[in-house]
Amino acid sequence: MSHCGSLLVVDDNEPHRDALSRWLRQRGFDVVVAADGMEALALAAASTFDLVLLDVEMPGLSGLEVLTRIRRTHSQTQLPVIMVTARTQGADIVQAFNLGANDYVTKPIDFPVALARITTHLSHKRAVESLRESEERYALAMRGANDGLWDWNLATNEVYWSSRWKAMLGFEETEIGSSPDEWFSRVHHDDLARVRDGVAAHLVNGSGHYESEHRILHRDGTFRWVLCRGAATRNDAQMATRLAGSLTDITETKVADALTGLPNRLLFDDLLDRAIKRPARRPGYLFALLVLGLDRFKAVNHSLGLLTADRLLIEVARRLQATLRSTDALTRAEHGFTLARLGGDEFTVLLDDIADVSDAMRVAERLRSALERPFDVDGQEVFTSASVGIAVSTTGYQRPEQILQDAAIALHRAKAEGASHCELFDSAMRDRAICRLELETDLRRAIEHRSFQIHYQPIVSLSTGEIAGFEALMRWRHPQRGPISPAEFIPIAEDTGMILQIGRLTLTESCRQMAAWQRRFGAAAPASVSVNVSSKQFADAGLAAQIEAILEQTGLSPASLKLEITESAFLGDVTGAQVTLRHLQSMGVEWSLDDFGTGYSSLSYLQRLHVDTVKIDRSFVSRIGLEVNGSEMVGAIVALSHNLGMDVVAEGVETIEQVVQLQTLGCEYAQGFYFARAVDAATAGGLIASQPWRGRHQPAA
Ligand code: C2E
Ligand code: CA
Ligand code: CA
Predict the structure, then answer these.
(1) What letter would DSSP give residue 54?
(2) pLDDT, tens digit, for every residue of 40-82?
(3) Is the CB of 628 under 6 A from ligand 1?
(4) Residue nearest to atom 8 of ligand 1 (CA)
(5) Which residue from 518, 459, 456 is spatially nearest to 693, judged by alpha carbons?
(6) What is the distance between the alpha carbons of residues 205 and 202, in angstroms, rounded to a whole number?
(7) Does ligand 1 come within 6 angstroms of the Cβ of 672?
(8) Half-sphere exposure of 392 toward its Cβ, with a 13 Å CA cutoff?
(9) Which terminus of the chain, N or C, has fewer Cβ atoms within 10 Å?
């Protein structure tokens, strides 16, 4: 493009046309000529001119008609038009101005005068344009002094990049050209198609703003995350002529964890991805991924409060970082380590380029034991512990999420081993994980087909030997695998939310059964049926209403229903839990605290929650008769519960010694294999009728 401007000269008279255009070319203009109105319009639509010289009198389309059509798509500032007319045609001149001509010259053309007018209009047009551009740039600049600015002239395909834009990518003012490729060629391969498509879509039919977050290559070889915003300027025909906008570096918010400042999941995935792609170039290359989770963090969160728990996480991050630095010598890791926070209480470490698996094990063990020392959190001494799952690249991973998943499986396994453990992933673990997935599908099907049964385990009065109640326990007979323990499928049901449906089935069926026994046995029926309520159900706002409806539907009186709940249900929202508890108690339903003694801070809960019954966990009962002083703990719990006005059920009673001891300690009820396993409803009915333990083992008077 010429620096003077590009002109369209429209004249049907060939000698005139040639003389004028030659003269203008000599003065540095780009000149395109048109011999009639149609040609002029076609040229004006196809390319961008800075100005048109338009003959008024032409055969076919007159100059005035051409002017009218040009003004439909181009404003006076976008495309100035100077009419060329005979001195005598005063009326035409007036009409031309009305139709949007910018100026006129008369024939025969006085070339220097024409040149003066042309230059005036061109400089005016440029002044208006640059004013608008600078206004827009200014407005953009106001958005943030730290943003880079860019302004893409679509007609010339040139882009103005502000110095800040260049600096953000590590370049000096003079180092970047004006091609759009300066942008596109630096966009991360995985983001490029999305960015291009977004721009194209905005240009064609976009209203509002173009906006995208993508990675862009910095001069130093790293990718920065940027937020790119822009908007098109359109001509009267709604065609985009410019696209201008800003660029903001959002790398920090994108890749750093806000709490600990460690790399976050996104950045970590990137690094992991690189590690995974490396072995192709280097045989024998090995890396390991550790996923570390704090044990019982939920409980910590609950007892310390969110703020303190956050401070603890920060301290944990620091200690892990420091430990990793000091373990450098432990491994021959060539590329060192990267510590990141995955979210919540989970951290992850990439150990790059290690010599063998034992390196990873050693580091994991170091990290685990480093967290056993107490933390000083706001002057408070806090204890925590961690479990670690390890996955090593020998397994041949293709994508970051695969190795992360395996390490997570190993972590899960480590936690199941009883916390504060390190576990190395092996394929048997993956098989188990797959097995679990299958079980999930089968469980869903079982709910649809209602293929569960409920078995009933008697709860026996230790003073009379009569059956005081039954605990309803879910049974699932898997079509291929046979009976599956609730200890296996209830956790899956909880994780997936299926427990809500299962819980409703159990409640309905147990209440129905209990009502049937009451009709059949009258006063000889047991006092209540106990149904387990999972934490998920307990947290469900509709629980009370659901139970009310079930009681109504089955005709069971609320006093004949007991609900069993473990302490974990109260983690988090104790006040809310108390409300639910009270609400159902006010209806007459009673509550048992299940598995008492296994939880986190049992005694404080016991005082705050006012349940009706405490069930002492089997792990305490089983010590009776096995250990010296094996009954002390049970004795303490019984005494405490009685002080708080609660009665006690001992779980897992298996021997006559335990029965006798429990009687001596004043425990009201017992449940366990000594009396009976959970049995089907018909067998349970038989037990009610025969009362096999009535009057046996009477407590010593
Ligand atoms: P839980 O509530 O602690 O139930 C008692 C478990 O201990 C039952 O196992 C029972 O069979 C077992 N048990 C009873 N007496 C003895 C004994 O003397 N010795 C031994 N070794 N074990 C004894 P089960 O039926 O396998 O249930 C396991 C857990 O599954 C239950 O523990 C409960 O937490 C859960 N569960 C079972 N049914 C349901 C249900 O319908 N809903 C919910 N939410 N959870 C359920
Ligand atoms: Ca229970
Ligand atoms: Ca229990």
Answers:
(1) E
(2) 999 988 888 999 999 999 998 999 999 999 998 888 888 999 9
(3) no
(4) 473
(5) 459
(6) 6
(7) yes
(8) 19
(9) C
